[in-house]
Structures are given as structure tokens and as C-alpha cells.
Amino acid sequence: MIYRDFGTSGFKASAIGMGTYYDMRWIFKTYAGIYSNKKTKINAIKTGLENGINLIDTAEFYHTEGIVSEAVKNFKRDEIFISTKVLPTHLSPKSLERALKRSLKNLNMDYVDLYIIHFPNYAIDLKKTLKKMEELTEAGLIRNIGVSNFSFKLIKYTVENLKKYNLCAVQLNYNILHRNVENNILDYLKKNNIALMAYFPIAHGKTARNKNLEEKFNYIRSKIGDVPSTSIALSYLTSISDNVFPIPRASNPEHVMQNIKYADIKLNDELIKYIQNNF
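That's the NADP-dependent oxidoreductase domain-containing protein sequence above. Prediction below.
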């Protein structure tokens, strides 16, 4: 497993993390107290931790903070980097603090390594939200600040309006089939030492199911060996820049082990350009 500096956090994170967004059906079922395949999901996260992954992402919206809490309880807390996200409806200062404390209770933790604004809310003054996040960082409840699903303009606005702490990470939809991030955001984040957490890194499984892509993946396999298409998709992200951390969903121990098995693959410039020109 490759380990890299995660933004300005001072933490060496595994190049590939674990996401815990399962699907909307899972979320709706949890309102009725139904947690489908809970043990399998917990075991998937444990499998990752036991085999070198130390980066886990969750969110209050996902209803998986309790799953993460159960999975990590027998591991050393300071050896794991855990991020969670706050809903856009909870971005006023008072709501934000309440939401954070609920998340910490769900996680059974005293602090979260990274607290992320899940989506922007243009009805709430972002400056006030960021000020409150800095206060909660000062209080020790948050170690690092992040944002998700922000435009380039809004990312820069965030950087400019954090006064005491740096923007540590940005979470965006990024994969070989969706590379808008590469237009300008990726370079900006790298220049400013901001980690990019890539969600949907295998494009909702399209990299494995799309037969039209198979010939292209076969060309890459002819250069690097018999590697699954999903692992090639992940290796593109970890190869293009050392500040990119894909967070594929951890719901099945076998899939997590496959991600780990091929985590050290690094694509050369020729293959990176091939993907950019052909996918």
C-alpha cells in the first residue's frame, strides 16, 4: 500500500481509502431500523484496516457513522483518518455544532479527523459556517476542514475566507469517465497542498460493466498485466497526482481486498494520456 501526505493534515494516508455511501435504498431502509448486510459492511471496513487502508469516509446523510464506529472500535484511533460530512441544511453555526456533536456520538469519538461541508447552501453565509468550523477546530472537535461538491470558484472562496486553518481536502466526483476536475481544479488543489478525495472512483461500476470499454482496458492490460478494470480505474486516479485519494465503496470484503491487491500499480505517462484520449 502506498501512503501519502493527506493535504496539510500531517497524516500519512493510504492512497486508496474506503467510502461508506451504499445507496439511497440503504438510507431509506435505515429510517425503519433496517441495516441491510450490516455485518458484511462492517467486515469490509475491518478487512481494509487489517490490510493497510487507514482512510475512511462517512457522512451524517449516509447513516453509516455507526457502521464505521463498530468497524474501527478495536483499532488504534490515532492510526486511522476518519472524515464525515455535514448536510447543507445544518450549516448555520448552531446547527453545525449540533450536527458535529451528533456525528461524534454516532462515531463514538472525541474528534473527527476531517469535517466536510457535504454540499454548498447558498441561503446560508459560508463565511459564518467557516468561522464556526474554525472555532470547533480550535476546540479540538475537528482536526481538519474540508468541502465537497463545491465549484472551482467556491473552493477558492473557501480558501480565501479561512483565517486560522487551511482547507485540507475537497471531495468531488472524479473517475476516468468523469474528469471535469482536470480542467483547473486538480492543479489548483495540488499547488495549494489540498487533498482531493475522489468519490464514485469507478463510476458506479460502469468501468466493470461497460462492454464498450473492454477493448480499451485490454490495451492497458497488455502493458501492465492482468489487472481488473476497476483497479485500472483506481490506479489512474492514484497515478495522475499524489494528492488524489479515491474512496471506493467498502461494502464487500472481497472487493476491498481486490482494491488492496492492486493498490501499488502506477500508470506511466503514456497510459495516462491513453486514458485521457480514449475514455
